[in-house]
UniProtKB/TrEMBL annotation:
Gene it is expressed from: LOC117210053
Highest taxon listed in the record's lineage: Eukaryota
Annotated protein name in UniProt: Calponin homology domain-containing protein DDB_G0272472-like
Coiled-coil portions: 243-395
Keywords: Coiled coil
Provenance organism: Bombus bifarius
InterPro entries: CFAP99 (IPR039341)
Length: 540
């Protein structure tokens, strides 16, 4: 096989492998194509014991993943599918799929050797260090023995041997540790003394007199800090904010004009307006009291109705429970009868099922014999059809070979084309209305470019004029807003001065609301009394 001849086929296989590996680019596509070609069609021709050494020189994990990809069950189908897009089906089966299937055992052996190489080159993980603690102070502690009973005559008690003096001394380990600790302390104090004597002046501590003065100083009283003053943040005015503020001012002026017109058209006596507002407020309070009284009476009425409904519900529940008991007893009787009938029917069904099972077994045996006979006939027919198909393919292959030989002969006999001079002023001569020569095309392109340049300059000038107009509009709007704010500030100051000159009005005395009543409330009260009487009668 020639790798250049099958470049398109190997390129599609390599791209599918890279897509399976989630590669975002195809930088290693050419290298992958070579590896796919070698592993699929040249692995058998290599001396296999040395082939592992040439693969190890590349990335071993990448080679292992490629071998695993080629050993998948769907890889032969993929080879057949991609190959049929470029070559004929017979050629693909004979030259692409069958050699790949023959190389499968070598690929499996290569996969095992690559895995073994990865295991051998893997750096073993170091075992964690287990700390060993000192066992000096962990002495075994023996339990105290119970002293013997004190004899009546101590002189009669005879000790076998004298108590050693070491029992009254500390253990040697503790004495050694205390001695080492004292020695270390003496050495540390000596080193500290030498360091203090030989230290530079900047390392000396302050005198004790300074500490005493500091102790005598009284505690400082807490002084609250004033709030820090920050500079006012200057809001950057843009064209959009200026236009929005101008629109808001215009809207406020229109609302003020409408309000003044409405006041001019209506009544001008403020006392009558205040009187009307007071009457309206009084009427609203009376209506609210009526609503509250009505809601209270409705709540009491619903409470009485709930008590009556609860008593009637208890009576209904008792009657329903009695009917449920009777119905339950009837259902138990019916269930017992139904169980007896069901057992009888099940026995009959079991007998029928056994008969049907025996009949189905016999029918199954007959069907198996018939299928075996048909399978033998179909096998014979398929064998004959395969032989006929192989014969037809051989004839078709011979016919194609002859046709290819004839085409090659015709191609070898074809004369070389004559060299023709190129004239840029001549057209192609196809007979179309829109055809033109190369020189004419260049001329038209030149004039088109000049027109585009003129249009671009004109558009730039229009854009510049529009920007200047917008800048002038924004500046005029800002000036108008500043004048409006100044006039508003003057008017506001005048209003504040007038308000301060006015006298404070005396507070109005609050009138105590008189209890009110209505026909609806009287009717609800009467209905509530009737419901209370009805509930008391039912309770007794």
């Amino acid at each position: 096989m020639n790798i250049v001849r099958y470049t398109v086929f190997l390129d599609s296989i390599s791209k599918d492998y890279l897509d399976k590996q989630n590669c975002r680019n195809y930088n290693d596509l050419s290298q992958t194509i070579v590896f796919v070609y070698i592993l699929s069609y040249r692995i058998c021709s290599l001396f296999f014991e040395d082939s592992i050494d040439c693969f190890v020189r590349f990335k071993v994990k990448k080679m292992l993943s490629l071998v695993v990809y080629l050993l998948r069950t769907e890889t032969p189908n993929l080879f057949h599918e991609k190959g049929c897009l470029t070559f004929e089906e017979d050629f693909v089966e004979g030259n692409l799929v069958l050699p790949f299937l023959e190389a499968t055992p070598c690929l499996e052996k290569l996969q095992q050797q690559l895995k073994q190489h990865i295991r051998n080159t893997k750096i073993p993980k170091k075992e964690s260090t287990t700390p060993v603690f000192m066992n000096v102070l962990n002495r075994p502690r023996t339990g105290l023995k119970v002293p013997p009973g004190t004899p009546e005559d101590l002189s009669a008690m005879k000790f076998t041997r004298q108590i050693p003096k070491t029992n009254y001394l500390k253990p040697s380990t503790e004495r050694k540790l205390e001695l080492l600790s004292a020695t270390n302390r003496i050495n540390a104090m000596r080193l500290l003394k030498d360091a203090n004597e030989n230290a530079p002046s900047c390392f000396y501590r302050r005198k004790d007199s300074d500490n005493s003065v500091e102790k005598e100083k009284p505690k400082a009283t807490f002084v609250g800090k004033s709030v820090p003053k920050f500079k006012p943040v200057e809001v950057k005015q843009t064209a959009a904010s200026t236009l929005r503020e101008c629109a808001r001012v215009i809207n406020m002026e229109e609302k003020e004009i409408k309000r003044l017109k409405a006041l001019a058209e209506g009544g001008t006596d403020p006392a009558s307006i205040l009187k009307f507002q007071e009457e309206r407020r009084q009427q609203q309070k009376e209506e609210e009291l009526l609503k509250i009284q009505e809601k209270h009476l409705l709540a009491l009425l619903s409470r009485e109705n709930a008590f009556i409904a609860k008593q009637s519900l208890l009576n209904d529940v008792k009657a329903h429970a009695e009917s449920v008991r009777k119905e339950k007893q009837e259902l138990y009787d019916k269930l017992e009868k139904w169980r007896e009938n069901h057992n009888r029917e099940m026995m009959e069904i079991v007998v029928k099922c056994r008969e049907v099972e025996q009949a189905s077994r016999e029918a199954f045996n007959a069907m198996v014999d018939e299928k075996r006979q048909k399978a033998a006939e179909v096998t014979e027919e398929s064998r004959q059809l395969k032989a006929q198909l192989v014969k037809q393919r051989e004839e078709e292959t011979g016919r194609k070979i002859k046709l290819i030989q004839e085409i090659k002969t015709l191609q070898s006999l074809r004369a070389l084309p004559s060299i023709k001079d190129f004239d840029p002023t001549e057209s192609s001569g196809l007979g179309l209305l829109c055809e033109m020569s190369l020189a004419e095309l260049k001329e038209r392109l030149f004039w088109t470019k000049m027109k585009l340049d003129e249009e671009t300059k004109e558009r730039k000038s229009v854009i510049y004029r529009e920007r200047e107009r917008q800048k002038n509009l924004i500046n005029e709007t800002r000036k108008a807003l500043e004048e409006y704010k100044a006039s508003k500030l003057v008017v506001k100051l005048l209003h504040i001065a007038n308000y301060l000159r006015r006298a404070v009005f005396p507070a109005k005395s609050r009138q105590r609301l008189q209890p009110v009543s209505s026909p609806e409330i009287d009717a609800l009260r009467k209905k509530l009394e009737e419901q209370k009487a009805l509930r008391s009668q039912k309770g007794t």
